[in-house]
Amino acid sequence: MASPPAKSASSHTVPARPNTAFRQLRGRLSPGEFAAAVRRSAREIGEQVSCDARYVGRVESGEIRCPNYAYERVFRHMFPGLTLPDMGFAPRETVRGRGARTAAVSAAPLATDHDHRDTRIQTCEESDVLRRAFITGGPAAALGIAALHPLESAAAAAAAVSIPAPRTPAGGRAGAAEATAVEEAVRRIRLLDDRHGAEGIYRRATQPLRAAYDMLDANIQHRTVSDRLHSGAGELAITVGWLAHDSGRHGDARSHYAEALATARVCGDAALEAHAFCNTAFLARDAGRPREAVRAAQAAQQAAKHLASPRLLSLLALREAGGWAGLADRTGCEQALARAQRLFAGGPGDNDPEWMSFYGEAELEGLEAQCWSALGERARAVEHARRAVALQDPHFTRNIALFTAELAANLAESGAPEEAAAAGARTLALLEQVHSARIRTMLDDTAGILRPHRAHRMVAEFLDRHTASALAAGARDGAQVTERQPV
Prior knowledge:
By secondary structure, the chain is mainly α. Among the domains are: 20-132, no CATH class; 136-163 and 174-268; 393-487. Helix content is 68%, strand content 1%. The protein is built from 24 helices and 2 strands. It has a two-stranded parallel sheet with strand order 1-2. The longest helix is centred in the last third of the chain and has 28 residues, at 457-484. It is globular, with a radius of gyration of 24 Å. Residues 1-13, 96-138, 145-168 and 479-487 have low confidence and may be disordered. It comes from Streptomyces piniterrae. This is Tetratricopeptide repeat protein. InterPro entries: TPR-like_helical_dom_sf (IPR011990).
């Protein structure tokens, strides 16, 4: 039986008018097909939106007058050159102003009936005032994510992740708001890492992790909320583990990944288990334990086999290939690489995990370059590393620095010192934006290989810049250590 029409919540509510311009943009696609296209486009730019046919219908009916910022970025990516009014939306200022916010809040009653819930959903889509209030207070503040703005500089970001002490939700109960806060913390920390690297945010990011696990001990009334909190806490443990990994703290990373794996086993979350094993395999390879890397990657593939995500299985095959390369097993490595490429060619899918937004053609090329480098195939490693740098999305600044550092190392090993120095210099420039101990260590190794070639002007310039950069990084790290000392 259909629900009765929603009552007008406020005399200030603007009557909905059909968005015919957006309907024209959908073309011949069904609402469901168009929603799938929106989700694919979101993944291309590292966004996560839960678009479905119902959302498309609400836009076209005029119920959603202006999309939130995430949807706006996705729509602009899909339709380059078009503004929000071109797509049939109201200008943002007309739904973001003081009067609009007042009307939006008054139009969101606390009733729990179906009609009022729909009204509240519409209100949250149309006005970001409630979102700001949530992020700056309540559960989000308990997790310390209020200041994690994605556009901050690396230094400002590191200072901003100042996190209040964890606290149990009011009444000792954890609900959907707390689960959302954990999920938001994961997204924001990952965004900072993509742009700035792990150093400077790792220590502070451990605080929302502790808060998330404290919430698991709270009184959780509903199974769905419990599942979300366990999954969110596990993903946060993996995220913080990665920050430790990229900061050179391998022991801490191993501990965080083990915590995530235990959480996955407790709640029976196969996707979380696959992610934890995936990162464990990566860490084992970097820590010089290639056999463990192979076993962990194979365990991840076992956990992921029913998740219907070829892209995930492709990445896991690459993790396995890295382990085989570390064991100098060329046959095993080539077989895993072939499997990864075949699965990747199937394209992205709706079941791909949100955390895999980084995994595109550039990452495929970069990980393959690492395999050939480990096998001593420097020319092939250079070829794939070049592609990785050229194909990388500008959003992933840290990965551009990583792949450029890999290119420099492979060029140095293959007897091209001047090209290696040029790539090393580009990496040093990127390290002004990105703080990553792993990338600095790679450059240190490259500088060591290039020292006998100092007679080349370009090499000498790179070595001098590298020395200055290392001194600056050492001074910064020392200042951070002093800052953490008790007074």
